[in-house]
Write a structure and sequence with these properties.
The structure holds 2 protein chains of 2 kinds.
Chain A lengths: L4 H29 L5 H9 L5 H18 L1 H10 L1 H23 L3 H30 L5 H29 L2 H32 L1 H7 L4 H5 L1 H21 L8 H21 L2 E3 L3 E2 H4 L3 H28 L12
Helix pairs in contact in A: 1-3, 1-6, 1-7, 1-12, 3-4, 5-6, 6-7, 7-8, 7-12, 8-9, 8-11, 11-12
Chain B lengths: L4 H18 L1 H21 L4 H33 L1 H35 L6 H30 L4 E4 L2 E4 L2 H5 L4 H30 L4 H35 L1 H8 L5 E2 L3 E8 L4 E8 L2 H7 L5 E2 L12 H30 L6 H9 L3 H15 L4 E3 L3 E2 L9 H34 L18
Antiparallel strand pairs in B: 1-2, 3-6, 4-5, 7-8
The chains are: A mainly alpha, B mainly alpha.
């Protein structure tokens, strides 16, 4: 039997993007929440993500890397079409990434400048990625209405990242900051919920194909668990945060896990809408795929290396398990 | 104003990759220096290594972060700026970049967290292994990206089907003719960049505090590494040049400013290559020396630019970037051997020499950039030498888009470069004045482990 390599690589790319959105999502979310905290709390917030952000961002490189490796034709269509959005995201990512270092190594007023840039970079990255997603699901429309849609998706994604960040902080912090993180979680639930609802309603109108996929009988029946589970996860977060606030529960990880599920469900819905298109209504995964010998060469390597990557990623998270402590280089 | 989108796209990509290359050329070698310090601390408990490590791990973390963010930008700019490259050569470029992500990026990024912040959370041996894995990751990254870069210079192991390149042998693709030379040249360049950075910052510290033992030791380390590597680099560079003469004779002709094929070609020390008259203005040359260097014979024949019609790189640019690189190299040789001589005779370093080393702190950057410009501009007008023209791969993105984002990148990179240098100086000064030990952050939970 011949392996359907384009399909396998689509799966891998999907997993890389999902891993990126969840992992970098929580650390970008912490950055988005930064201005809400005092200076001491900000240090603790950054300490909770400091050891991870770099590896988290690497999943984005893997995602775009697979697009480049496996679907070079789509890579050359999608990235030029999203030129400005990509450039905005990159500049925001640069500012956010270097702020980790500069905000503690600079001195005087420089320090607070880098703290501000940390926030600007985190928020800018989220909004730009939302705009890129908007371009992908509409097949790169243009015009004022589309730009409004880009910002809508951007706001929704920023809300989602803030939700991941707040629930992450609920796990990793103690005392005052923990209490406030729970409060932020509740607020972020509503922003994210509004965003997910707006995107779910707007997407079918942007593409007739998507409309057909969701709103025809009996598909609606098979698909109905997806929105229902998403709604249940939202309610679950509110409920579990409430129990944590009143001290009736000790399951600090529950809101974060439920937030991750929201991302998984939303991702599944988007994947269903788009598949098998890489460029909506223009290029399928099979049309965009690289030569078989190239895919095979990478596939063999990925089979060996990806389990190792997952293994040492788990190791790294276990090293920094538990409540965050101030970051020092030790001696 | 009508700017050429091709020139803008090249300027943008060049700016980004030029900014990016500064930081890996430090971290590739600095990672190994840190492994050395780590081992000395954990297994020999050498007192000066601790404060030295404390400073250099910070420099490493900062340089690494700058390399990461500009590297991510590059991975996107392949697509935004050169979509034609990906659709024509993606079958070969893609897997090489894919292997870089899979075998290098995750490894270095993940263990960097443990290396930087995990000292009090894992056993000493595991922390040392983490540092080692970061070093292996940065070197592995250089391996893959140089394999691709070399393949673009000296492609082999491919066939062309319907205008697209397909790999026929991955071994031939990876171990293409210029790869071993380029890899060795770049790895040693990184060693020299890090060595002069270490020596320069240490000299700066000694000027402020002559009794500061860690700086004395690190200056010594930097000088010894540089004194050993510089002659090796000159030899490897010569071999690399001979390899280029064999595979890319037009690049060599442009570097040497040789317009017509001749026997016993002179070595130009100074000249202003003139593309209108196709001659060199104000030339100062050593007779027959270019032939001697390139063919190792006084009367060896060197091909001139006229043999290649229009398909040769712009002459003046590579002529000068090459001379800047060689000039900096000779300066490095003089400085490191003078320093080495004083160390050998156990003499005091005079203040002017310390100032000299401080002035050479970023000399590696100048040489790396000049060398990189030589080899990349020297490949023009091709993106894949002899196969694909750069002009045929540019994207159709409107010029104002490229121009505005180019300005954005330039502003950000300018800010970062200035901040980097300021912070480096401040960190070094703090250490030299004995204020380097970290104070726990206000409101911090948990204990400080020293």
């Amino acid at each position: 039997m011949e392996l359907d390599l384009p399909l396998i690589f689509t799966g891998l790319m999907g997993l890389a993007v999902l891993a990126y959105v969840i992992l970098d999502g929580f650390d970008l979310g912490v950055g988005i929440l930064l201005p809400l905290a005092s200076r001491e709390e900000q240090d603790m917030m950054v300490a909770s993500i400091g050891p991870f952000w770099d590896a988290n961002e690497t999943w984005l490189v893997l995602g775009v890397g697979i697009l480049l490796v496996a679907f070079p034709h789509a890579h050359g269509v999608i990235l030029p079409a999203l030129y400005l959005e990509v450039a905005a995201m990159l500049i925001a990512l640069i500012l956010r990434g270097v702020s980790f270092e500069f905000r503690v190594k600079a001195s005087g007023w420089h320090q607070s400048m880098w703290n501000h840039l940390f926030f600007v970079g985190s928020l800018g990255t989220a909004v730009a990625q939302g705009a890129m997603l908007a371009g992908l699901i509409t097949g790169f429309h243009e015009g004022g209405l589309f730009i409004a849609f880009e910002f809508l998706v951007g706001a929704g994604l920023a809300g989602g990242y803030a939700l991941l960040g707040a629930t992450w902080l609920a796990i990793k912090t103690e005392g005052d900051l923990h209490v406030r993180a729970l409060r932020w979680s509740k607020a972020a639930v509503f922003v994210t919920g509004a965003g997910v609802a707006a995107i779910s309603l707007a997407t079918p109108f942007a593409s007739a194909g998507v409309m057909e996929k969701w709103f025809s009988w009996p598909r609606m029946l098979w698909l109905s668990p997806l929105p229902s589970f998403t709604a249940a996860a939202f309610a679950g977060i509110l409920f579990s945060v409430k129990r944590l606030q009143s001290g009736r529960s000790k399951k600090e990880w529950l809101p974060f896990v439920l937030s991750v599920w929201i991302f998984v469900f939303a991702f599944a819905g988007l994947a269903y809408s788009l598949f098998p298109w890489l460029v909506v209504d223009r290029m399928t995964i099979w049309q965009a795929a690289a030569a078989r010998e190239s895919l095979m060469f990478v596939f063999v390597g990925a089979c060996v290396v990806l389990p190792l990557i997952v293994g040492y990623t788990v190791f790294s998270y276990s090293v920094f398990w538990g409540k965050a402590r101030s970051l020092t280089y030790g001696e | 104003m009508s700017a050429d989108p091709l020139i803008l796209a090249r300027a943008q990509f060049g700016l980004n990759i030029g900014f990016h290359i500064l930081f890996p050329s430090i971290t590739i070698a600095l990672a190994w220096i840190l492994v050395y310090l780590r081992v000395r601390i954990e297994f020999a408990n050498v007192p000066w290594c601790k404060p030295a490590y404390r400073l250099w791990v910070k420099v490493f973390a900062l340089s690494f972060a700058l390399g990461v963010v500009s590297g991510i930008t590059m991975s996107f700019q392949f697509g935004t700026n050169w979509p034609g490259f990906m659709s024509k050569a993606g079958n070969i470029a893609g897997p090489l970049l894919g292997y870089e992500v899979l075998t290098a990026f995750f490894l270095e990024a993940t263990f960097l967290g443990v290396m930087l912040f995990g000292r009090d959370r894992v056993p000493a041996w595991l922390h040392t292994v983490s540092s080692l894995l970061v070093a292996i990751g940065t070197s592995a990254s250089a391996f893959w990206i140089l394999a691709l870069n070399s393949w673009m210079q000296t492609p082999q192991g491919y066939e062309i089907i319907d205008g697209q390149l397909h790999a026929t042998s991955w071994m031939a693709v990876i171990f293409n003719p210029s790869f071993p030379y380029r890899l060795a040249h770049m790895m040693i360049a990184s060693g020299l960049t890090a060595a002069f950075l270490v020596a320069g910052i240490s000299a700066f510290q000694l000027l402020r505090n002559p009794k500061f033992e860690p700086a004395r030791r690190m200056l010594r380390l930097g000088i010894v590494v540089a004194a050993v590597l510089t002659p090796i680099q000159i030899f490897v560079g010569d071999q690399h040049g001979l390899n280029t003469l064999e595979h890319q004779p037009a690049k060599i002709a442009a570097i040497e400013g040789i317009w017509e094929t001749e026997k016993g070609a002179p070595l130009m020390l100074f000249a202003l290559p003139n593309k209108e008259t196709r001659t060199n203005d104000f030339a100062v040359s050593v007779p027959k020396f270019a032939s001697l260097i390139l063919t190792h014979e006084l009367d060896g024949e060197v091909k001139g630019l006229s043999e290649f019609g229009d398909m040769h790189p712009p002459v003046a640019q590579v002529f000068w970037t090459f001379r800047i690189m060689v000039g900096v190299g000779l300066l490095m040789l003089a400085a490191s051997w003078l320093g080495g001589f004083l160390l050998w005779r156990k003499r005091q370093f005079p203040a002017w020499l310390l100032r000299g080393f401080a002035a050479l702190t970023f000399s590696g950057w100048v040489a790396v950039l000049a060398g990189w410009l030589t080899t990349e501009i020297g490949r023009q007008p091709y993106i894949v030498y002899g196969l694909i023209l750069t002009a045929d791969t540019a994207s159709k993105v409107p010029a104002p888009y490229i121009a505005s984002t180019l300005v954005g990148y330039a502003l950000v990179y300018g800010l970062l470069l200035v901040s980097y240098m300021v912070v480096l100086t401040q960190l070094a000064r703090k250490e030299a004045e004995g204020k380097g030990r970290e104070e726990p952050l206000p409101g911090a939970v948990g204990q400080q482990v020293l």
